[in-house]
Fold this sequence. Notes:
The structure holds 2 protein chains of 2 kinds. By secondary structure, chain A is an all-alpha fold. Helices cover about 75% and strands about 0% of the residues of chain A. In chain A, helix 5 runs antiparallel to helix 17, helix 6 packs antiparallel against helix 7 and helix 12 packs antiparallel against helix 24. Chain B is an alpha+beta fold. Classes of the chains: A mainly alpha, B alpha+beta.
Amino acid sequence: MTHEAVANSTQVIMGYSFWIATGIFLIAYAIIVSEKIHKTIVAIFGAGVMLILKILEQHEAFHVEEFGIDWNVIFLLISMMVIINLMRPTGVFEYIAIKSAKWGRGEPFRIMAIFAIVTAVLSAFLDNVTTVLLIVPVTILIADALQVDALPYLISCALASNIGGTATLIGDPPNIMIASKAQLNFMDFIYHLSPVIIITMVFYVFAIKLVWGKKLKTRDELKQRIMAMSENDAIKDPVMLKKSLFVLALVLTGFVFHGVLHFQPATIALFGAGLLLLLSKTHEPHHILAEVEWPTIFFFMGLFIIIGGVVKVGLIKWMSVQVLAITQGNMFATSMVVMWFSAFASAFIDNIPYVATMNPLIVDMAKQLWPDLSGLSLLHHADLMPLWWSLALGACLGGNGTAIGASANVIVVGMSEKLGKRISFGKFMLYGMPMMVMTVIIATVYVWLRYYVLKI
Amino acid sequence: MKAKDLMIPLQEYLKPDNTLKEAANLLRIAQRGEEKIGVKALPVLDSSGNLAGILSIGDILKAVHPAYMDLMNLGRFAWDGMVEAFAQKAAGKKVRDLMTAKVITVKEDATLMECIDYMLKNNVKRVPVLNKETRVIGMLYERDVFYEITKTMLGDNTGGKK
């Protein structure tokens, strides 16, 4: 590596298009944060501006991996949404929730802990918003039946879903994006993130016991209401349920082996969605497809194009140079900066645009550190790997910090407002922020111990 | 036949600040024609007499049906006494929080077909009738439209009361 090569690799030409692209990026992000205009509209319009000003050619936006829409993310999200939408009417989620409450034997805290664990496990395999939408209604019903305050259950569910979602590739959108960008497979996430999340959940259950355990009390006759519920009544369509479970098992098996079989996760998910649609024998796929969260999907597509623009003009590269200057190339320090900065950034801004920005930043950082490498040997460089995990842990766990930190929190706060039980920004933070700090400390110890001390 | 010929002229109405308890009572005893037999919906007028919304008996049902039950199929897991508990809580709520604020209305000179068109397309069974100053002057109910149709079908003038 010559001195000149280093100079070239860090050089960014700050010309006309650099500033225009940076302007579009900053204004779009500012409006997204301000919530003055719906974030999906901002993303689509920002992408449109990037294209019409030819910062990015349409061809680059649609077909070039480095600058364009990450179709792997898009199709993985759409396919999983289709599978869940087909499963939902079977009643399986009501069944799981009622069954959990009965396992709790009507004891308020026992139920809270079981719900937290069930939420975390479901979140690891479904997206967090879906999980919360499926668990929270039953949670409130149970709280009403026991005549206890539903708020602790709601907050604890939201927090648990963000923790659980961190565990797998498909659990949380940041992980899906990181996996696609860094070409990491499902088992990489199981191997590197699931262990720390399991440890975190143990601490989390103790933490909620400490916070709410003593406050939740009920009477014995109210417990009978729970025990009288029959979870089998929840199943509305046993035939479709069997088909769904079969396809879900197939998809999960596919995820486990997708690395070995050289399939992208989106391929597995799309196949599963197609198969379940076929097996459902529906003649009206437009209902199922209409329930896909299109605003989220278009938010992703718009963002990818906006990010593509600033990657192309070199803004992200410039930012990566600054980060390396701060940490002076010390990878442990970089890792810690990435994790803690990600956590606090994700607590206040949407972690999806944040990770969309950080992904290319980390790639650019790697290119400066190892200019001779490319492809997998660059993306999977032993010194770079902890950075990806730190980013995932920081961005996902950081979502717990505030009421707006993760979509699951926004949903829960919105739901409780509808129920006339307002969770203020401050109240959520009172519980969320300490939990976030606790979980990120656990993650810090884990990353330090595993990758920098034990090096396994 | 125009909307104003078929409507029940405005007698009772609700105010946004009424409690649900007051509203429920009025819905139960409101006059319909000459009799006090209750109505299925009443217009909500603000202090200056403008239409602010409509409150129907369906809205009262919604008031005791918690929002979380809309999201999943949980009816099977409800318990005896649940409605009564929610009804007690709901009694003090304000009409403004439960009324439908976006109201489908017809003008007084709307033809019968226009009224039916609005009712079917918007899936409503009763519509406030507005005069030229956009004041509510009456309510047009599905049942009265039905009577009008039956009159023609049966070919007489005794198919229903006007």
